Amino acid sequence: MPLDDLQALLRAGLPDDALVTDPDVAASYAHDMAGFCAAGTPAAVVLPRTVEQVQHVMRTATALRVPVVPQGARTGLSGAANATDGCIVVSLTRMDRILDISPVDRVAVVEPGVVNAVLSRAVAEHGLFYPPDPSSWETCTIGGNIGTASGGLCCVKYGVTAEYVIGLDVVLADGRLLRTGRRTAKGVAGYDLTRLFVGSEGSLGIVVRAVLALKPAPPVQLALAAEFPSTAAACAAVCAIMERGHAPSLLELMDRTTLRAVNAMARMGLPETTEALLLAAFDTPDPAADLAALGAVCTEFGATEVVPADDPAESELLLKARRLSLTALEAVKSATMIDDVCVPRSKLAAMIDGTAAIAEKHDLTIGVCAHAGDGNTHPVVCFDAADADESRRARESFDEIMALGLELGGTITGEHGVGVLKKEWLARELGPVGLEMQRGVKAAFDPLGILNPGKLF
Amino acid sequence: MPLDDLQALLRAGLPDDALVTDPDVAASYAHDMAGFCAAGTPAAVVLPRTVEQVQHVMRTATALRVPVVPQGARTGLSGAANATDGCIVVSLTRMDRILDISPVDRVAVVEPGVVNAVLSRAVAEHGLFYPPDPSSWETCTIGGNIGTASGGLCCVKYGVTAEYVIGLDVVLADGRLLRTGRRTAKGVAGYDLTRLFVGSEGSLGIVVRAVLALKPAPPVQLALAAEFPSTAAACAAVCAIMERGHAPSLLELMDRTTLRAVNAMARMGLPETTEALLLAAFDTPDPAADLAALGAVCTEFGATEVVPADDPAESELLLKARRLSLTALEAVKSATMIDDVCVPRSKLAAMIDGTAAIAEKHDLTIGVCAHAGDGNTHPVVCFDAADADESRRARESFDEIMALGLELGGTITGEHGVGVLKKEWLARELGPVGLEMQRGVKAAFDPLGILNPGKLF
Q1: Going by C-beta distance under 8 Å and a sequence separation of 6 or more, which residues neighbour residue B121?
Q2: Does position B35 have pLDDT exceeding 70, yes or no?
Q3: Which stretches make up the FAD-binding PCMH-type domain (chains A, B) (predicted)?
Q4: Among A151, A441, B9, B189, which one is most buried in terms of CB atoms within 10 A?
Q5: Residue A324 lies inside a defined structural domain of this protein
């Protein structure tokens, strides 16, 4: 159908400022932060403020069989929010109201465009805590977090986004409104459709309202850094920490390549001869005592130095190195591919050492930082995008890292999602029966296949 | 098809002792513990020991279009495991192996027939904790817990079964094997089909293996009892406890009717003039201090007496009254109907007082015990099954209690499930769009409708 007709039909149910048709502006909505994934050109970008406006868009899209790509802040790392040619992009960023915060029920009700950090600060004023904290938390939206089922640093103690989403309002492909889940602490009435939408990358419906479970705010966390002479020793310490029942609120690992990159960028004076740095934190009533016990485990497993912070400011300084990791690795070469392989904790050392072997084989720089307590590694493949051979080797190593993860009983994505980046790998992980059942679910919600087509599978 | 043919086809792929065809023995598998729900007569009962045997049954059932009803220990309270006429009952109780317990990965891998208490004790030997603890935990199976998404006393701190199921092997309606989820701490590869099966009451497939997340074993819990002059005061205390960030491992409420029934049965000397008894426990490093703080909140909200236990034995004595509640209420009249309405915590008082009003209106004895911290009430309607009018009033009050729960923003079932008991109510809670999407999911997994037909919707 001609572009003008589509835009006219959309305009009929939208306020003037909700429809972007200028091709240059629309093009700026073409992709998320996985820049190297293919992205098409949207026919229109809609910035709705109400549920009814989203419903109008979906009714129009269904009538015209036009694909729709829902977007949050486009901080994703898998291309899941990338436009397809001729699609309608629905950016939910203007639906950014916090509708309710209840300390008694320990829930918040929000629109999808609320920024993670805005919500986190708002609930903190009520003595509450919304744990999920992806790296992009200052800019990413709750709707995007739900779409990608995102994680963060806190998962080792608090789990991922999925565990905090208990109810949803979803505009379906045909424009109808579906309400799932509950506001109550428990509820088992029918199939858990709420959870089905979490991580569905906009392929089953558009989330327009979410009921989120909250926790009481814990004490401010206190951190520790421990230097290890090998990743194997650091990973053995991680396993022992978890096996012995410690409950850190953060347990992160940086390898030597990452340490060097951070030093090169920020002159932090990190120990470059150290093969692995472990960062741990506790948000318990007596974090110093808990850190001392965890530090003792590190020493037992060969840590050459254990540095506990004395106060929250010192903690933040220790954690700054971790927070800079990705940016620092991105500065090593002109391009990076960030992997997100999660393995059983007991296989963490095998995963990291195997990644080092892949880097060596392909003569590439691959830095690994990991949510070590979860077994969730982020190997960052650094390469020169202008060098065709290096780019090819980067892609090969990226794939070999996922193959290694599956071999070790892991998954191709712990928290970043599938998008377009890992479509073929999803099929490998799920196998033919799994893939068929996933497609069956997709067809039940989106029989015309207009919701974010070409993503996931 | 003739019964003999069905049995012969089943026998072809099963060892002799796996097939029960004796009508009397088969009839003993007709229903779960919701005895007053309709139950049919099974054509055969299969007791498989292997995945292949379950696959054989499902292939046979698909070929013959015969309904299949999966069963665990049949301790459910909604008729979800009740046989339908001419069905094949698949009892998973013989698939009872614990396949793996990993303290490092904090997971257990089990067959569905493992009894909850057996698993709990086995993981405790490794310093681990499998929290879900339905009342029937000494006899109910993990497969049944997964089918009904069951809860228990620990949910206020540890959540429900769903939160501990991270991967499944499922035999589909056509006999194919589907593997969902993961063994890793995190994973977002595709739609969360694992969670879809939890609470699906055997209507989407037969779970033959489960990967369960475990927690480190906490200290033994210490309990406290607090007597209140009104349920409103007790509920206000519950709200304040949760609002102020206390994290009890148990927070239960018994109303006056329940207290009287327990006294009548066990002569426990519970205070019958008390309108509500609150029981709380902590499994923290310093439970006495935490109980003292919680006790102070109870006093602030009008508790006339606060009795903290000095040791675990005394705790168990306090909790015994709660554990006896259901049995004691069942002894009041010849029959009971156990409701399971969960409301937002802030509406708990309205729910309990509303239930008392319903009891008075219908001139019935309705005792309420509640997982108060979750807002999950169990009103137990006591009636004489031989008295037609009283039975009618019991059914009416049972329904009015659910209507009240929905009015208060709650759900018709917090942990018992829908089964046949609450089918019509599920439709009311979900609404037409919700119901249609649920049916769509069902059709995607079970196009012939042979898996536990007539349950849920």
Answers
A1: none
A2: no
A3: 38-217
A4: A151
A5: yes
- If asked whether residues B176 and B236 sit together in one domain, one would say no
Quick one: A126 and A236 in the same domain? no
Is A374 inside any structural domain? Answer: yes
User: What's at B308, amino acid-wise?
Assistant: P
Give tens-digit pLDDT for A106-158: 999 999 999 999 999 999 999 999 999 999 999 999 999 999 999 989 999 99
A window 179-208, beta carbon within 8 A of B: 179-180, 182-193, 195-196, 198-200, 204
User: Which residues 95-134 on chain B approach chain A with CB closer than 8 angstroms?
Assistant: 102-107, 127
Beta strands in A186-333 (DSSP E): 206-213, 215-216, 222-228, 250-255, 276-282, 305-308
For B184, the closest of A188, A200, A344 (CB atoms) is A344
Domain that holds residue A175: 98-216
Per the structure, the count of domains in chain A is: 3
* H or E, element range at B196: helix B193-197
ipTM for this model? 0.96
Nearest to B50 by CA among B6, B74, B17: B17
Nearest of A257, A271, A282, A289 to residue A227 by alpha carbon: A271
User: Where do we find the tokens 């902590």?
Assistant: B282
Is residue A136 domain-shared with residue A248, that is, in the same domain?
A: no
CATH number of the domain residue B294 falls in: 3.40.462.10
**Position B368 in a domain:** yes
Among residues B49, B76, B91, which one ends one of the domains?
B91
pTM value? 0.97
Model confidence over A209-241: pLDDT tens digits?
A: 999 999 999 999 999 999 999 999 999 999 999
Considering the domain boundaries, does residue A44 fall inside one? yes
Q: Is residue B228 pLDDT above 70, yes or no?
A: yes
